[in-house]
Each structure stands twice: as structure tokens, then as C-alpha cells.
Amino acid sequence: MADIDDRSVEPEPYEEPAPELGRLHRDYVIPGVSPDEDNPYRWHTGEKRDHGGEDAIEVIDVVKQFGRTRILNGLNLGLPDNQISMVLGPSGTGKSVLIKHIVGLLYPDAGDILVHGESVPNMTDDELFEMRKKFGLLFQDGALFGSMNIYDNVAFPLRQHTDKSEEEIGEIVNRRLREVGLAEATEKMPNELSGGMRKRAGFARALVLDPAIVLFDEPDSGLDPVRTALLCELIREVHEENGGCYMVISHDLGTARRIADFIAVLWKGRIVESGPSAELFESDNEFVSQFLNAETVGPLAMD
Amino acid sequence: MVRAVADRAFLPAKSLFEQVGNMMILTGKTITAAIKPPYPYGGEFISQFLFALQLCWFPMMISTIAFGFGAPGLQAANFLSLFGALDRLGGFFILASVREFAPFVTAVVVAGVAGTAITADLGARKIREELDALQVLGVDPIKNLVVPRFLALMLITGLMDIYALLFGITGGIFAELAYGQPLGGFFATLFNNASVTDLWGSILKCTLFGAIIAVVCAYKGMNASGGAEGVGRAVNQAVVIAFLGVFAFNYVFTQTLLATHPEISVIK
Ligand SMILES: Nc1ncnc2c1ncn2[C@@H]1O[C@H](COP(=O)(O)OP(=O)(O)OP(=O)(O)O)[C@@H](O)[C@H]1O
Ligand SMILES: [Mg+2]
């Protein structure tokens, strides 16, 4: 029997066991994964095809759990600068949760998020405040301020972050509202608008500061096909004008074909595959091709 | 199996402690945010104060007169009339109304009327992701939304306490009159027993009730989840927890006040 008190033996350095890829831990549930499924990640090559540029946002090994449900499970993702990227994935896989991590509204349980090389979870409140000035964010439900009319909602970021006079602000706000077709509705309160109109107002608000990084959470949901097409054109135009890293979340393949330079497919808390959109549409990965061609037969089913 | 049962039995308690801890943290953050410049919450403070005043003044008047007339008034008068000591009712009102019932009724009315409005308002904003949007736009919800409500509720409960004292004693006067007594004895024992300690103790206590109500209601609103139904649940829990908090704090405060000011225990 070894002497328990023998201190001369160097203890083995303790290492955090790396999360075993492809196997499910018993203690948590991943949405859409049945516990007896032996490798839920068999389609996740995680392959990242070269997009020929720098990444503005890097998500590294991010794990996020709500209670016992693991939403992000070792997520790795890079979003290229000066391109429009698109994150696609089945409903409920954590796309909106991902956006909230990027702007620092949620903290990862493990892993890191870098925006222009700076770690978001490690920022102090003041640093976070400075960093957020770079961002334009369209929430999934618009998140307009219910106590302000549409004009004031869109003017809010300008009043908050710039010293512009009310005249200059008025010019910018009216231009943005015209672009999204809400020029007539400036005096309306958010609860007097339809869902699609609220979405467009949120869209205008996300863009008034000409931010370097714009995150759109389903800008096209609740819009008619023509308005969706026009909105895509608008995103393209604004991006050509300002540049920067644009990230669009959408379920609409038409939108993906129209605006995406770069596509990442998210499923079960990890990226299945990501790369320039033309290459991804041609991917021979079973899941990716099922998803991007909207086929009923393949790895993804209703449950 | 055993663990599942244990989880179910103990989890609510654990989460209650956790919530109380989080509320303490929120209190700390609120006070810090209130003190640290800049002070962008002036306008919101005034509008919240007026809003609470507008909501509370009428229910307060009805509740305090009715309560003062009914509970310490008629019941105590009935009891005192046994001894032919109805003039002592004034002194009893210092004990009952000033020290306990006025702050109590104020807390109940303010929590039920203004506190729930705060929870519902903040909860709706939380559900619509407005609070997230504010943060992303560089606006601190604690400084801009919680601080003005916190201060407004403290001020309103402090003021409403005085209001409750006046109307509560009016209820006592009605009770005295209902027993056909002249009011001289009532006022004599009232002022005999009244001390400055009683008055500031009452107002201080009530102001702190306001702080408790504001923190609990703001916390519950800001942490609402699960759609419109979640807001309803948050309002419900906010009222329950605010009452619990107020009653528990009341005990501590009363004990402390009596221990540090023994002279107020002497009934003259
Ligand atoms: N604050 C939270 N607390 C608990 N669970 C949450 C929270 N936020 C999100 N979730 C859960 O995380 C999962 C992913 O949510 P998310 O909103 O990111 O999905 P999504 O990919 O954006 O879906 P959709 O395409 O339908 O918008 C959901 O199952 C949701 O219930
Ligand atoms: Mg979403």
C-alpha cells in the first residue's frame, strides 16, 4: 500500500477534462437530442472554409446552459469583417442566445467571445459600454420602447451617443424611416403598429449610428415577400456604403441567397459547417444540404 | 428518486434565498447608482412620484379612515368602555395607529397599488426585451428605471404615513363620537403619549417599507420571464414577497426601537 502521507511524490497536475466531443453527458439535456442517440454530432464537421478575410467576431468553445438544458455546446464560429454573414439553423437552436452573448447581455458558462480581438465576457461595465457603441442590434421582436413614438425610438441612439443637434438627428431619422417605408408612421406608438412595421422600425433604429457591427435577428420575419426583397436590397446598400461586419439570422433561404457572403449553419449548439455561401450551397454535408435545400428527407426531422 | 423528491422539496427554498440575496445586491446597486453622478433620473422620478400619488391618495384615505374607525377605534373603544376609560383611546391610538397601523396600512396600499404597477411595467418591458435594448444602447436600466422608482416609492410611503396618521386619527375621533364621548379626553391622552420618537420612528419605518417594496417589485419585474403570463406571475409573487419583507422588517424595527428607546414603552 502506498504511503498516503508521502509528500515527495509530485501530484499529477489537475487538468479540466475536455468535453468529450460527440458524446452526451448524462446530466444535461440538449434540445432536439434524444439521450440514447449515440453520436448527435456525426454531421458536425465544424469545417470552416476560408473566406479570405479577417474575422471581426470570434466565438470560441462557448458553452451555455439554462438550468439543465444546454443550448450552446462548445460553439466555435468566426464571422468575417466586411462581409454579410448569415447564421442559419432550426428554430430553437440558440441563434438569438448567440447574439446576446456577442453583445454581452448573456455570459457564457465556458469559452470566450472576441469582438475585434477583445474578450467580451471579461469586460468591465465601462468597457462594455464603449464596445456596444460599435453595435447595431435588431432584436427578434423589435424591442421598441413602448413609451416612445417611432420617431423617438429611432432617434434614441443618436441622442444617447452623439452630440448632434435635433435638426441633424431629424434628418438622419427621417431618412432611415423613409428607407424602411415608415415615413408616415413617425408619430405612432409601437403598440399601434403591425409586427412587420415594428420590425422595420427596429431595423431603422439599429442602423442610425452607422455601426461597424450590425446584428439582425430575423429582420425578414413577418414581412411580405416584396418587402423582404426590398429589405435585402437595403441591407446590401447600407453595407456597401458603410462596410463592417453584418450578421443576419434568418429562416428564409431566399434572403440567404440574396445577401449572404458567408453562411454558418448552427444545430444542437454547434456549427455544422461554415464558409462562403456559394460553397455552402454546394456542400455535400447531409445536414447542410438538407437544410439549405429545404428537403424533408435527411438528418433533421420534426422532433 | 429520493434526490428528485429532495430537489422538489428544497429547490423553492433555495431559490427564495437566492432571490433574497439578489434583491440585496439590487438594493446595493440601486443605492450606488443613485449616488454616483450623473443623475439622469430626475424627470422619471417626478413622473413616478406623481403617478404613485395619483394612484394612492384615494385608496389610502378610505383604508385609513375605515381601518382607524374599525379596528383600533370601535374595538378598542368597546373594550375601554368596560372600564369607563374611553378617554384613554387617544393614548391607545399612539400605540396602535402611529406605531403600527398607519405604516402597516400604508405599506399594504402602496405595495398593492403602486408596487404592482412597477412590477407590471418593468415586467412588460423585460418581456418585450426593452431592458436588453436599453443596455445595448448604453442606458443602465438600474440607474434610469429602478432608482427613480426606488426614491419615489420611499418618498411616497413616508408622506403617505403622515397622511395615514391624520386619517387614522380621524377614524379614532369618529369612534369616540360614536360612543358619545367629548373629544377633550381623547386629545389629552393622545398628546400625552405622543413623543417625537414615535413620529420619526413611524415615518422612518414607513420610508424603509417603501424601499423594500420598491426593490422587491422592481426585482420581480426585471426578472419576469415567460410572456404575458410570466408578468402576471411576477406581479403576484412581488406582492407576496413585499408583504413578507415588510412584516419581517417591521418586527425587527419595532424591537430595535423599543430596545433603544425604553421611554416610549411607558404608558402615561
Ligand atoms: N433566458 C433564458 N432562460 C431559459 N431558457 C432560455 C433563455 N433564453 C433562451 N432560452 C432557450 O434557449 C433555446 C434557444 O433559444 P433562441 O431564442 O436562441 O432560439 P433561436 O435559435 O433564436 O430560435 P428561433 O429561430 O425560433 O428564433 C430555447 O429553447 C429557449 O427556450
Ligand atoms: Mg431567435
Word description of this protein:
The complex is a heterodimer of chains A (303) and B (268). Chain A is 30% helix and 22% strand. Chain A is built from nine helices and eleven strands. In chain A, the strands form two sheets. Chain A has a seven-stranded mixed β-sheet. Chain A has a four-stranded antiparallel β-sheet with strand order 3-2-5-6, with helices on one face. The longest helix of chain A is centred in the C-terminal third of the chain and has 18 residues. By secondary structure, chain B is mainly α. Chain B has one domain. Chain B contains eight helices and no strands. In chain B, helix 3 runs antiparallel to helix 5. Classes of the chains: A alpha/beta (303), B mainly alpha (268). At the A-B interface, helix 3 of A face helix 4 of B. The structure holds adenosine-5'-triphosphate and magnesium ion (MG). The site of magnesium ion has 4 residues of chain A, from helix 1.
